[in-house]
Amino acid sequence: MKxxxxxxxxxxYGETENIVKSIKKPRNRYIxxxxxxxxxxxxxxxxxxxxxxxxxxxxxxxxxxxxxxxQIDTLYESx
Length: 79
Prior knowledge:
Blueprint: H1 10-23, H2 27-78
C-alpha cells in the first residue's frame, strides 16, 4: 500500500466522518472504496469517448462504401 497526504474540504470531511461512523467502516477503507468506484466510472467515460469517436470514423467510412455500392448498382441497372 502507498501512503498519501490528502486535503479535504471541511464539508466533505464532515460528511465522510458522519457516514463512516454510521456504517462502521474505517475511513481508509471507505476512501479506498470511493476512489476505486470513481476510477471505474472515469475509465468507463474514457472508453465511451473512444468508442464514440471510433464509431463516428467507422460510420463515415461505411457511408462512403455504401455510396460506392449505390454507384455500382446504378451502373448495373443502366446496362
